[in-house]
Each structure stands twice: as structure tokens, then as C-alpha cells.
Amino acid sequence: MKLIDTPNLDDHDAFYAELLAAHRGLSEAQSHALNAQLILILANHIGDREVLSEALALARKR
Amino acid sequence: MPYDYRSYPYVAPPGLTAPEPRHKVVVVGAGPIGLAMALELANHGVASVVLDDNNVVSMGSRAICWSKRSLEIFDRLGIGDKVLAKGVTWSVGRICHGDDEIFHFDLEREPGQKMPPFVNLQQYYVEEFLVDRAMDHPLVDLRFKNRVTALDQGEDTAHVTVKTPDGSYGLKADYVLACDGARSTLRAMLGLDFEGELFEERFLIADVEMEADFPSERWFWFEPTFHDGQSALLHRQADNIYRIDLQLGWDADPDEERKPENVVPRVEKLVGPDFELDWVSIYSFQCRRLKTFVHHRVIFAGDSAHVVSPFGARGGNGGMQDVDNLGWKLAAVLHGRAPRTLLDSYDRERVFGADENIAQSSRATRFMTPAPGVERLFRDQVLALAGKAAFAQGWVNSGRLSTPCVYPGLGPDDPHLPALTRPGSVAVDAPQGNRWLLDTLGGTVKLLAVNCTAPEGLEAETVAAELNDEVQRRYLGEAEQALYLVRPDQVIAARWVEPERRKIATAIRALWEGRP
């Protein structure tokens, strides 16, 4: 597995707060749009199809 | 000036008065694919009879964007100069969201190639040039107003019944080539059907004539204000004719939409009031193909075998690649140079090519007409991102323009050589003195020797490449020397940095047997 699914982000609590803050004041449709753009931006940044496929599989896993 | 549709003469065929000798090949359909097929076979010394139920070229622009590879094939068939002279060469595409351009691309002519990336020319001109060429060619017997009404096959022969204004007659042939288009009669006669997706989306296409100073560019709009938030495409063609494609939505009524009183206001919103409506058609998307293209003595090529949505220019160009692939193989089988298994490789390779075209055009279709909900969300956000981040421009899909596929399973290869010319690819053109490499390669098996000499006694003519920057970049990369084995369709079959006689001989044998 190439995808890192163990702790990897410094100060993740602060990032979580930043993520929520980015959505503040947005309608539900605007939030969906922001999330969609975020996924596209991050996917391009990661730039590794294998990692992305594994991330998709992890997100779909119940 | 709108096109002057001339009628070609009908001549009573000999088969009406006495049985004709068995023919090598009967081509059904004198569209661009059927005509190109007959001329390509003639290039390989095979005579054919071409039957068409009509006697004029096709109505309306239809296939208009001819790719570099198609232009190279046209050149080999003797109409390349005419197409270049009459057509509109373009390389810039502009993509708009709403009424604003979000980005543009430039396909830029690569230096050192004879043909540009794309030329726009109405299908009726391409057909006219091919008809002129075919009527002049002693190996092509072109018969207008000859409609096939029945088809049957024996062990080593195919038989067609043909209806003419003077009655019916029969023809026997080694092979019948079904080049009779998307609504192929031969496909129906064999009880075959397409497999794949039929998109419930209707598009209106119109040719309009106007004196305008629109540049020679491809313009695509997502959700323009002039067209109720649907997509639109504008292309310039020869004779001041512009081609407009407008998305109508799946619930549009085709008969209603094609009426001039409904078409004119839509076009007016895009180009203003000063135009003449030349032709209108309505179509729905299909991305489908036959399961196999070779059915014993009947072989399918072009739209009769596969159909795609039009936005990548993959219909006409895909068909031309069928012609490229089938011509030399069928000729070799008929001349006894190759076993019939070579035709299996046509099926395998062109099914692969069709699948690539279908996948590309299905993706473009989904991007242009996303399903409501999350599909629509992502599409809209890609468009929104494209205006502010360079990477997202590449994700905007208004059609991925046709390029030849790279056939899998050919080789051997040498990893030191450039990926551009790996086995399975069409050889890339390059200057050779005052000629071009593709002209030098021609239509027979060649060994292309780059900075080396080919071993002697092999059953292939050697071409010594003149070394220049383009040849260096495209055929050597970092390597000192290379030997390329090139098929008659100019597809690279194998290549070596250290050529050995025995290995080359094996590769030449595999080429004629059509082994993967």
C-alpha cells in the first residue's frame, strides 16, 4: 500500500479547524463546490494514480 | 458559395448482360472510407469494384476535422495537396465558460513534419477529391446507383446481389468490405448489432455561410448565455462556411428543432444576423462498436464497424486508420504473401483502436453532458478551477482530438530509444533532404537504418535515414544508432540498437503472420 493511512500531518487539530473555517458562511451547495475543488487540487498535488486509487478505496470502505 | 452537388454518371454495369468474372474485392459504400479503401488497395496492386446506392457526395459538412495521420494517408492516396489547398489549417482551440474564455490551447505544428495537426474540410470535398481520383484509377471500378440488396457467403467467396436502375445482377468476390456507414445495410443483412452506449442527448449541427472575420480556430463554449446554458462548438471550414454544433438536451424534438424558424434564432444569437443557413442535421450521441470487424469474407471498416460522439474528430479519422491498417493486410493475403491470420490482426488492432476512441469520446460526452448531482458538481468545479489553476485546464474535456493509437504487443523494443517511436506507433515524419521520411518509407515493409547499416539478405528494403535534428530526437534519443522495422502502414513493428540478422528475420516473419 502506497497510501499513508497512519498519522502524517503535524497539528492536525488545527488543520481540522481550518477546514471547518473554510466552510463557514457557505450554503450547502457552496460547501459541496469547495469540497469538490479541494479534492481536484489535492489529487493533482499528490500526482500518483496508485495513491489516489487507494484513497478512493479507503473512502468507500465501510 | 454553397457547394455545387453534381451528379456522377450511372453506367449500366457489365453484370446486367453477362455474369462478371469473380472479383478480388467488392467495396460497399463510396463515402470517404470506401473510396479511400479502394484507392489504398489499388496502391497495393489490388483491383476492386466500389458500389454506392447514391450518385452524389454526402449532403452537409459531416466529418470536417482531418487529423495529421489522415492527411498523411490522403497524401499517399494522391489527394493530400488538394485537401491542404482547399481546407482550413488550424491549431488554436479556445474554451469558454459562460461567455468568457477560460483558456486556449495551441496544437502547434511540430517542426519538420509535412502535415499540420488538423485541417478542416467538409466531407463532401474529401469525397469529391477521392471520387475524381478513383474514376481515374484503372484498378478502381466505381459504380454509382448500385445498391446491394442481398449478401451471402460461401467457404471462400462472398456473393452480393446488386440493384441498379436497369435491374439486378450478382457479383462474386473473394472479400466484401462493408464501408456503408453508421446505418450499414450489410451489418443488418448479417444480423449484427452494435454493443455499447447510446447517449440520450441531442445535438443540432448546422453549416452556415457568412462573410465573417472569425479566426481559423476551434471555439467551444460550456454554458454560454447565447444558448441557454448548454454547450456549443464553432469551427471554420472552406468557402466561408462555418460549422456550429449546439447541444439541445435529451428531450428535444428532432423534427421541431431542425425547422429553419427554430434553427435561425439560435444561430443568430451566436454569430449575428448576417448568414445563410446551408445545412442542418440533428443527431444523438452513440459510442458503440461491433464485437468483431471480420466476419469470414465480409470485413467492416469505418462507421459500419464503430461509431463515436463527434467531439474528438474520431469518426472519420478512426475510419481512415482502419483503411491504413486493412489495406496492406488484405492485399498481402490476396497476393498469397501472407496467411489469412494476418486479417485477424486487423480485427485485433482496430478493435483496440475503436475501444480507445470510444473510451475517449464517452469521457468527453460525460464531461459535456454530466448527469445531475455529483457528476455535474465535479464538472462545474473543474471549469471553475480552470480559470484559476493551470492544472485544471487539462481536465476540461471538450473532446480529445484524434491521434493514432499505439498498437499493443508489437516488438521487440529497446528501452534506450525514444518513447515516441516505440513499436505499435505510427512512424513520425521528419525532413529527409528535400523530401519527407514518410514519403521515403512509402507503403512496403522497410528497414529504417539510422546511423547504421542493416544486415544483408533480409526480405525488406533498407532505407538509410539522413541524420538531422528531428531524426536524432525522434528515432535515436541518447542512442548512437538504431534499426527500425516499419510495416507497410508505416507502423513501427520492432526496433533494435544492436540489430542481429536472425532476430530481424523473426520479426519480419511475425509481421506477415500478424502475430502479436
Automatic annotation (TrEMBL), chain A:
Pfam families: DUF2783. This is DUF2783 domain-containing protein.
UniProtKB/TrEMBL annotation, chain B:
Gene3D superfamilies: 3.30.70.2450, FAD/NAD(P)-binding domain (3.50.50.60). Residues 24-352 form the FAD-binding domain. Its cofactor is FAD. It comes from the Bacteria. SUPFAM superfamilies: FAD/NAD(P)-binding domain. Keywords: FAD, Flavoprotein. InterPro entries: FAD-bd, FAD/NAD-bd_sf, RIFMO-like. Signal peptide: none annotated. Pfam families: FAD_binding_3. The keyword Flavoprotein applies. This is 3-(3-hydroxy-phenyl)propionate hydroxylase.
